[in-house]
């Protein structure tokens, strides 16, 4: 394989050299090359082409056949895919219907259970409400009886207190009258005692004045005696 590639490169290089060294055609960009020599080089190049390149050429020639086979395979795969997709769709629909049916049955069961529980709770609530109402009525009646008894007791206590206050009022009035009487007696007694005290003090002052006058006369007499020779 390496020798073939090397030979190809040599042939290409030789073609390049021939073209580069060819004589130019005056007044143009063309050149004159030896035809036989170039044809020999091209034949040599064609003969030394690798097998892969030849196979590629064969593949290019068989392109139409390959495309037809690919188209047929694609159509076969497409038909198979469609069939499988239809089967998948049918299975999905069947599974969906089964799931919907199961969900509906579960929903109906849940609703039935919920309704039963609601009925039980409602019945229990009604029983509890009746018991609470009965208990409330009993408590109300008991409170009414207790209130009536307390009212009767309060009325009796009020009447007793009223009578006691009336009695105490009479006693108070009697005490006030007695106090007024005692006050009047006390005022009279105080006036009498003050008069007696005033009389006693006056008499004592008179006696003391007489004593002082007697003493003054005695003093004057003693002074006179002292002054006489």
Distance between the termini: 204 Å
Number of helices: 4
Instruction: Provide the succession of SSEs.
Output: HEEHHH
- Fraction in beta strands: under 5%
How many strands? 2
Oligomer class: single chain
- Evaluate the radius of gyration: 78 Å
Shape verdict: elongated
Q: Report mean pLDDT, rounded to a whole number.
A: 76
Helicity, as a percent range: over 70%
Structural class by secondary-structure content: mainly alpha
Strand order of the largest sheet: 1-2
Which stretches are poorly predicted, pLDDT < 50 over at least 5 residues?
none
Main sheet: strands, sense, barrel: 2 strands, antiparallel
Q: How would you describe this protein?
A:
The protein has 229 residues and is mainly α. The chain has a domain at 1-61. The chain has 4 helices and 2 strands, in the order H-E-E-H-H-H. It has helices spanning 2-21, 35-47, 51-61, 63-227, and strands at residues 23-24, 31-32. Strands 1-2 form a two-stranded antiparallel ribbon. The mean pLDDT is 76.
């Amino acid at each position: 394989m390496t020798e073939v590639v090397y030979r190809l490169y040599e042939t290409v290089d030789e073609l390049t050299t021939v073209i580069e060294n060819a004589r130019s055609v005056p007044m143009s960009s063309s050149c004159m090359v030896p035809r036989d020599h170039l044809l020999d080089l091209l034949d040599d190049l064609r003969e030394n082409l690798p097998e892969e390149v030849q196979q590629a050429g064969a593949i290019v020639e068989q392109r139409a056949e390959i495309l037809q086979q690919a188209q047929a395979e694609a159509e076969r795969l497409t038909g198979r895919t469609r069939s499988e997709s239809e089967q998948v769709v049918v299975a999905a629909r069947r599974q969906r219907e089964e799931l919907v049916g199961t969900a509906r049955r579960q929903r109906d069961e849940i609703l039935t259970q919920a309704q039963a529980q609601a009925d039980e709770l409602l019945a229990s609530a009604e029983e509890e409400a009746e018991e609470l109402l009965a208990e409330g009525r009993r408590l109300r009646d008991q409170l009414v009886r207790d209130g009536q008894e307390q009212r009767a007791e309060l009325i009796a206590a009020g009447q007793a207190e009223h009578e006691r206050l009336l009695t105490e009022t009479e006693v108070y009035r009697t005490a006030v009258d007695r106090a007024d009487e005692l006050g009047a007696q006390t005022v009279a007694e105080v006036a009498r005692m003050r008069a007696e005290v005033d009389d006693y003090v006056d008499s004592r002052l008179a006696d003391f004045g007489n004593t002082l006058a007697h003493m003054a006369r005695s003093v004057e007499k003693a002074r006179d005696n002292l002054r006489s020779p």
